[in-house]
Design goal:
The structure is a homodimer of 418-residue chains. Chain A has a domain of 231 residues: 3-Layer(aba) Sandwich (Rossmann fold). Chain A is 38% helix and 17% strand. In chain A, helix 3 runs antiparallel to helix 5 and helix 4 crosses helix 15. At the A-B interface, helix 6, helix 8, helix 15 and helix 17 of A face helix 6, helix 8, helix 15 and helix 17 of B. Chains A, B: Its cofactor is pyridoxal 5'-phosphate.
């Protein structure tokens, strides 16, 4: 057997909070004006109370509402798959497992937090959401979730992706969301996640019917993703494994990485590996400092690895990883050396993604290709040493909406810088 | 609970053959030259022996080889889902279930037979396959399967789809297949499944390393798809249902319809409903007669409903249903009134598909939208009568690679003829 499923009634009913397990207690975000620690009221124009509470919670577990579980059960628990065909192609003694988040309705892990955020907003009376999206994974996920709770949605899409990824835009519109390219006031600018966040926050502030939703970076977002790692732990046990030797995930803002890795933080023998694009090397080349989450300086200052909030990453295709900063929780773990980080160039990512497609049969999103590239290198290292290493990586999304990037790679049209 | 899964070791280990259950014994295909019944040797240039045996088999069950099961277990058994959100939106007392074939690696049911065909060809020493593809679902499925067995593949893609659906072409190439638009010798012709079959058969005949693979129509293809209905039966029992009142599936060549419906043929109380596009109304407006499977008259003559082998359907987007003929097994069931058929215009199909996306959260392939449109009508009829009808339909594929068609529909660019 090489695939482990769990029935819908075995979905975890509480999220795992990594905060009590951090080597260093988290530092607070600072108000962008006063530079004092933010208080919940500062965040009230943007988020519902429940999410603000989760943002600052130090409780080890947070209950998942039944209404959220009802929707997650449409596709969760997701399968854990052993990549035996890839192992064989590599000739490695390593056992490679991946958690298949691509089967969610919008095709990626982003749907996990989208449902929770839409639910809490609807429950507190919000009728409209704004958000940003880079590659479009988050925008599609939130559009799906907004439709489930009858919320209106406006998505500010990084202009480079808006042009390169029309299918993501159409998917958002099919679920009922509205999409505009960002930055809205600079039609020639390729955009960045930072500038799209500014647009979405500006649209939200001052409208009492509207809240803002973020698809990564924040503590509550990563909290919602921990379903991934919790299920994986249970499924690895079903597969007869104790713990993985290394857990690998791509990292842009940190949400799919946090989702699979955080439940393993207390297991000190488990290595945790973040994989980022060489063109946007936040964890590997950024500085650890307080910085804004957006370009315009509207968000609180967060303690994180950053390339500077005015950094404009090259318009590479793995757009979901093009963020100047990183989750404060992930940053804290990297700073304290509980988590490692590595950066990969784009060519190597697509090479790995195509090898995966031809062996395991699934075409990954380019973001996901980063984890696959690092997984292959870990497996080849195990081949050198003969070690029967257990590798777990997050298959965070499929690439059906990113096929133009594959075409560009195959035909030599990709910028090799990143 | 609204989703029923089965673990990978509960996949059916034998395919269901409908032939012993037909009201009228099947008539033989005829040789295109002599018009005499074909003998196995006539088919040997095209297909491996095992598939020829399955094509003429009257055994009630056919064992699935272990090597095929090993690959099918990557995604099978597929979930059975109750569409409670759609039921609620319609206000119907009907209980609507769908079998989710969209989670296969290539995103549709076609993968089921692709794996079996690639296996039998590889086992008998073939190293290269040719095939046709309309909308591209079959081409992607066979490219995935060919990669699993290290077979070379050349896909002749209906020219209209080649232009409208670049993502399908790229997916085929990503798995390693070669794609060319068809008809190869008429660069201005939009093409049809019939002409693409001619191209693929011509390429195959006379090359000893090459066989031909067909994605629908033939008995062995529909046999491989019966996994769908077999699993659905078991899962409906888990859901507490006896038998469905009606089983619904889209119908082009008949393979996803046969796959879900054939295991219910012996259950005389179960209605079986084929849904075809109004622009290519084979079952509802065609004649029952012997006709060629392709445009050029290279294939055997088959007893089926047909619009004539020189029929060129309009270039609508639901390309997978654009076939002049139909499966002889499906045709026989319709002729004997064991199966019903209905035709839907394209606008109504997309309207239904979008309602499904916004309620159930999944964006269907346009082909699949045909089944959804008919399901909605059955559910609304049940609302009129107050009947607690159980409806089962085949969610045969996702629409992530068909989003341009949604954009065209939403923006009024679709030809409303079909």
């Amino acid at each position: 057997m090489s695939r482990w499923t769990l029935p819908p009634d075995r979905i975890p009913s509480a999220w795992f909070n990594v905060v009590p397990h951090l080597p260093t207690p988290p530092q607070p975000p600072l108000h962008p004006g006063t530079r004092e620690p933010v208080v919940p009221e500062d965040l009230a124009p943007l988020f519902p109370t429940a999410l603000i509470e989760q943002e600052v919670s130090a409780e080890p577990w947070v209950d998942v509402p039944g209404e959220v579980l009802d929707i997650l059960r449409l596709w969760r628990p997701t399968p854990l798959v052993r990549a035996t065909r890839l192992e064989k192609a590599l000739g490695t003694p390593a056992r490679i497992y991946f958690k298949d988040e691509s089967i969610s309705p919008s095709g990626s892990h982003k749907t996990n937090t989208a449902v929770a955020q839409a639910f809490y907003n609807a429950r507190e009376g919000t009728t409209r959401l704004t958000t940003e999206t880079g590659a479009g994974q988050w925008g599609t996920a939130l559009s799906f979730a907004a439709a489930q709770f009858d919320l209106d949605l406006k998505v500010y899409m990084v202009r480079a992706s808006y042009g390169q990824k029309p299918y993501r835009r159409i998917a958002i519109e099919t679920w009922g969301g509205e999409v505009v390219p960002s930055p809205v006031d600079e039609p020639d600018h390729p955009g960045s996640l930072g500038s799209a966040i500014s647009d979405a926050v500006r649209d939200c502030v001052g409208r009492s019917d509207t809240h803002y939703a973020l698809g990564s970076v924040l503590n509550h977002v990563l909290l919602h993703q921990t379903m991934i790692g919790l299920e994986a732990k249970e499924q690895l046990a079903l597969a007869g494994e104790r713990l993985p030797d290394v857990v690998i995930a791509p990292c842009g803002g940190g949400s799919n990485l946090g989702g699979i890795a955080f439940p393993f933080v207390p297991d000190s023998g488990v290595r945790l590996l973040a994989v980022e694009p060489l063109s946007c090397p936040t964890l590997t080349q950024g500085r650890y400092d307080y910085d804004f989450g957006d370009t315009a300086g509207l968000t609180p200052l967060m303690p994180m690895y950053t390339l500077g909030h005015d950094f404009v990453p090259p318009s590479i295709h793995a757009g979901g990883l093009r963020y100047h900063g990183d989750s404060p929780l992930v940053s804290s773990l990297v700073k304290d050396e509980r988590m490692e980080a590595v950066a990969y160039p784009q060519g190597k990512v697509f090479e790995a993604a195509i090898q995966f497609a031809r062996t395991e049969g699934k075409i990954p999103a380019p973001e996901c290709g980063h984890a696959i590239a690092a997984t292959i290198d870990e497996a080849l290292a195990a081949k050198e040493t003969g070690e029967e290493k257990v590798i777990l990586f997050n298959y965070c999304g499929h690439g059906f909406l990113d096929l133009a990037a594959y075409d560009d790679y195959t035909n030599g049209r990709l910028d090799e810088i990143g």
